[in-house]
UniProtKB/TrEMBL annotation:
<dbReference type="Pfam" id="PF00650">
    <property type="entry name" value="CRAL_TRIO"/>
</dbReference>
<dbReference type="InterPro" id="IPR036865">
    <property type="entry name" value="CRAL-TRIO_dom_sf"/>
</dbReference>
<feature type="domain" description="CRAL-TRIO">
    <location>
        <begin position="103"/>
        <end position="255"/>
    </location>
</feature>
<dbReference type="InterPro" id="IPR001251">
    <property type="entry name" value="CRAL-TRIO_dom"/>
</dbReference>
<protein>
    <submittedName>
        <fullName>Phosphatidylinositol transfer protein CSR1 isoform X2</fullName>
    </submittedName>
</protein>
<dbReference type="InterPro" id="IPR036273">
    <property type="entry name" value="CRAL/TRIO_N_dom_sf"/>
</dbReference>
Length: 255
């Protein structure tokens, strides 16, 4: 009489064993990928120090390993591409004076309430940047000050990133929007800022309660967004309230 197997090939014990093996393999792959990424980060760090010694060091500088890894991921782990993009980003930060931006330095527009970083994260644990389009007046407000406010708020939102979170949510409130608020040039600037200097940091963009007059502007801007267009969602105030926040964390403007 043939001996019986200790358990069926499809028994719970066998399934648990198979899952355990898969878990070990997955863990081993992640460790290998982590080691490989670490090597590339160090390679870029040494390359920047050797080829661009005049670039600033420290946080968001040529030896900031977190920033290097961020750009390395964006460039699909191509060392040359990451170095090229990272070099431009660090130079831009230095020339723009990003580290010197403060609430005081942008107070002329910050006080208008046209844009702000929400106090709470959304339900996905992302920092939230809210833009109130009806308070943006390109004919009356200085473009340079608008750019400063934009970068200051992006930096402020990123400073609220919880561990393990890499992206932010941007909500553009279009209630009350009119053509005097339209600003294609600034939207182009915003797109470039995220693409070149804050890649992979934009998780989703909500256009809330877009009026009919916004449609022509959207048709102009949409081709410029390229891959970012897939991050855009047109929705209602109710959607923002119910799908992105709890009753306790929803921004006051959307309650």
């Amino acid at each position: 009489m043939a001996s019986r197997l200790p358990f069926s090939p499809v028994s719970p014990v066998h399934c648990r064993g198979r899952k355990l093996v898969q878990s070990f393999r997955c863990s081993a792959e992640k460790q290998t990928q982590s080691r490989d990424a670490r090597k590339l980060v160090l390679e870029i760090k040494e390359k920047l120090e050797r080829e661009h010694p005049n670039l600033p060091a420290g946080k968001n500088g040529r030896d900031d390993e977190d920033m290097i890894l961020w750009f390395l991921k964006d460039r699909k782990f191509s060392v040359e591409d990451a170095v090229s993009k990272l070099t431009k980003a660090i130079k831009w930060r230095q020339d723009f004076g990003v580290s010197g931006l403060s609430e005081e330095s942008v107070k002329s527009l910050y006080g208008t309430g046209k844009a702000y970083v929400h106090d709470f994260l959304d339900i996905s644990g992302r920092p939230v940047l809210v833009v109130v389009a009806s308070k943006h007046f390109p004919a009356k407000q200085d473009p340079g000050e608008n750019k400063k406010l934009c970068v200051f708020l992006i930096e402020k939102a990123l400073s609220k990133l919880p561990s393990g979170t890499e992206e932010m949510l941007v909500i553009i409130d279009l209630r009350g929007f009119d053509m005097e608020n339209a600003d294609v040039q600034f939207l182009k600037y915003l797109i470039d800022v995220f693409y070149y200097y804050y890649p992979k940091r934009l998780g989703q963009v909500l256009f809330v309660d877009a009026p009919f007059v916004f449609q022509p502007l959207w048709q102009l801007v949409k081709p410029l967004l390229k891959s970012y267009a897939s991050l855009v969602r047109f929705c209602s105030t109710e959607t923002v309230r119910k799908e992105y926040f709890t009753e306790e964390t929803v921004p006051a403007d959307f309650q």
